[in-house]
Amino acid sequence: MASDSPKDSGPARQGDDLVMTVASERSAGVTAGTVEDLGWQRISLWRSFTYLMIPVAILSLISGSLALATQWSPPESVETVRFWFYFFDVGREINLPTWFSAGLWITAGILAGYFARRASRHRRSWALFCVVCMVFSIDETLELHERLDAIGNELGRHLPLQLGFTWVIPGILIAGLIVLSLLRMVLALPRTPRAGLLAAGIIFVGGGVGVETLSGFFVQGDTLPWQFFLLTLVEETLEMTGISLGVAALAHLIAYRHSADGSTAFRVADRPLPEIEPATH
What we know:
Blueprint (H helix, E strand, L loop, with lengths): L15 H13 L12 E2 L2 H28 L2 H14 L7 H23 L4 H20 L6 H8 L11 H20 L3 H26 L9 H26 L2 E5 L5 E5 L13
Antiparallel strand pairs: 1-2, 2-3
Helix pairs in contact: 2-3, 2-9, 4-5, 4-9, 5-7, 7-8, 8-9
């Protein structure tokens, strides 16, 4: 895999220089500045995001519909509806939405781990990002973040209002540390994946912390009103949307090229590249 160095950042020239670039690519890989010139294209961020949002929309729609059905179904049908709702309830763990979200985090972790080996810079930050994604995939299944309630309860005593979910207090602190640790790496990325990752983080934290904090105000002992279920649906949908956008942004950092023999080559393109040949596939 080629290294991305500043001296190679210009586009390939015509004639003999282009032939030398191709020959160099065959022996030692292509440089960052010639990726687009030689037919390399990035994986489309928006197309990947659209594909990932299809299951997000389906899971959220089914979950919301079944949640309403549990309230409006006749008494003889309630148990059947609740049976199916268990498998699609975005507010629960160990079901289809959880499996999908955990799979997204694992995919993001695999991509980050690949970048930790192949990226031209910030490899330690990519390795940290990989670990964070894998921990979050475990959290989706085991609800590790809710174990932070013990710390949150102590910190919540000093707040002027009572929170329904106190884990969000240390959760915000942990999220802040992660952001500070990875911000330099993210800001060094090309414009589109950089914007995608920043937007993904805002959407995910806005749902996982912001909306869940609001839903906590509607927790009234063992009684959960309709506002709580609605906010939970919004929260989980925003989380899945944020993760999907993050995976799509990471995929956009991979460039591919189809060869005449039918094979496809891939490489990391984590530096700004001239958009000479926009992706069409």
